[in-house]
Amino acid sequence: MRDEGTNMTVRWNAPSGIYDCCRAACIVAAYAVLCLSAADCPAIAQANFVTFDVSGSAGTYPTGINAEGAVTGYYFDINGNQYAFLRSSKGIITIIDPDESHTVGASGLNRGKSVTGYYADSDSNFVGYVRSAKGKFVTFLPEGSTEIDPLAINAAGSVTGFYRINSTRFGFVRTSDGTLSEFKPKKSSQTLPQGIDDSGRVTGYYQEADGDVRGFVRAADGLVKTFDIKGQTYPFGINNKGDVVGQFSINGANPSGFVRSAKGKVTTFDPAGSETTWPYAINAEGTIAGKYSDGTMVHAFLRSSKGKITTFDPAGSFDTEAYAINESGAITGFYEDDAGTHGFIRTP
Prior knowledge:
There is one protein chain. By secondary structure, the protein is mainly β. It has one helix at residues 40-45, and strands at residues 9-12, 18-19, 21-24, 31-35, 48-53, 57-65, 71-77, 82-87, 92-96, 104-109, 115-120, 126-131, 136-140, 147-153, 159-165, 168-174, 180-183, 188-196, 202-208, 213-218, 224-227, 232-238, 244-249, 256-260, 266-269, 276-282, 288-293, 298-303, 309-314, 319-325, 331-337, 340-347. Strand 11 (115-120) and strand 12 (126-131) form a beta hairpin. The model is unreliable at 1-45 (pLDDT under 50).
């Protein structure tokens, strides 16, 4: 995955209006659902799935979903070029290509349909962008940096992520007016923000000089509080209540999942049979979406606010990964089967 206002330019979107190829309008029976208890099965039977591919793609990878069910992500064409896309809740796909680049990523989408991500320019710099719902681009790259990775955008249009100067990564928050603020926790040698809520709170992780990795929450006023959970700690997502999800590892063991409340209460968890757990996103209801590996395959899962875990895989798949969840509980991600890599949306 991949500001400095003085270098900011404006670009417009590439031609759009391409429709996705839905592999199924509503797939339930075709999905092999793994229930961790008998009580899980009736709820899953009611879940709906839509799978889709960007037309002409060799692989489709959704990364974000907003309140109305629009999805963003990236795909590879048959020549190996990477482009970003925005899929509307009605299934219309718009290609995102800020500068006719052959490498474009998209990682964040807000309720106003603004998308953030990066693209490679003609000098092979990775430049950040925000694309408005009307298709207008603003691009940014801090002075001295050759690579920026915007990872999340909130309802106000504030973006967080990190940029690199030489071998050092710095965290940033860029507001909708173009103001970019760099930050790092004390003792940080590498700072990697991952998520931002609508109040402007940011979560992520940082590495100290001795190699220890710790989590942090940065308040909207810039105050940074750090935490760790028994060992190496990697927060990935935050909801509008300030609850944080991520993974942790003790003494090099395979990582487990955690959820940390805004008040600091920590609950750890793993799906049954998991060797490694990656919780990526949490909504305001406390429902968590992510993936786990059982040592042979990768499965998607959701965990309710009460701790109930349900896993799901499309029939015939060998890798299913859930990356984002919206306030209604709709989840997006991708899965792999013998035919390739496809996007999906799972709704309750």
